[in-house]
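Entry 14. Ran structure prediction on the chain below.
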Amino acid sequence: MRSIDSIRQDFPALKEWVYLDNAFVGLMPTPVHEGYNEWINEWYNFDIKKSTILNGWLEKTSKLRSLVANLIGVKSNEIAFTMCTGSGLNIVVNGMNWCKGDNVVFTEWEHNPLVTHTTRKSSVESRVVHASKGKFELTDFEKLIDDKTKLVQVSQVCYTNGFRFNLNEISKIVHEHGAKLLVDATQAVGALQVDYKHDNVDFVSVAPYKYLMGPAGLAFLYVNEKSIPELIPDRTGWKNQIYEGDNPEESIKEGTAEKFEYGTINFQGVYALSRSIEYLNNIGMTNVEKQVIKLNNYLYDRLIDLGKDIWTPKGNESAILSFIQESPEQLAKVLQAKKIKVTGRKAHGGHMRVSVHFYNTEQDIDNLIKNL
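Output, structure tokens:
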């Protein structure tokens, strides 16, 4: 791994900011900025390298599909590009065949709770798993999941306090009852090593503007290849139309998650995300995760020394740590005025959320501690 000093040179904002708010928005490194500009200049100058400029964008998208798949341990034909995390989650919910008596199970800390217009219209029962002492217990899932459960949703890393699920363990419980597991992994991918084939999950939705340091307005959805045929696209467009008349566009191949892409995607985001994943690959996700967990453990110890009531369970391995705080929003504003960026929220009794990334240092954390 490159030295931290060298890496920090790629993030101009770090010259001025102590940035510890990656669970909100990740900082953009220089290569990602260059990716944005590459796309703009290509269109601005009409720099056609293929038969059409669109073909060039589509080829870039195909390469990105493979980069994403390799990053998360799946196949490229199992990746669909979407607009945001919620878009991917809704594709799954809207594409399932709901029946009377079905139920869904999800945690109380889902950023996109599994209560939608589709589930309500279909009279699907919602069952909520509640947290205890900052975490969720598998036994509480076992109490709520039954043979009428069709879909279970969890966040791999909870946006509230960073609690990290063991996806392999929860998937066993879900599949024992014939249900599917849907994962919001936006707070995990880019900070942690992931392997969704190994974890045996069915669907994963990710937005890359946090720990992947990539674009807003472009996201991706993993659909396990066994689920692709049975999941029905919730909308159609030029890319996945089912009209049998003349179609000037080439049809999407059967058995690919690309069937959930119905139109033109955020191609500028494609260029940016490609650069982001290449950047992370060069550093190595093993190194990224090691640094993130090391810093989070250091932060935990410093907060304990300060006498803070920490909401995140001890030993939790993620990039997020939260502690209980009076007037958290006011404190966040005071810190921001000092160029220290964290999140303060009134929700859940009032807490501060600190979220590190691989480019942070122990000195960043010390600067935060001195100002609490």
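The mean pLDDT is 96. Will compare against last week's run tomorrow.
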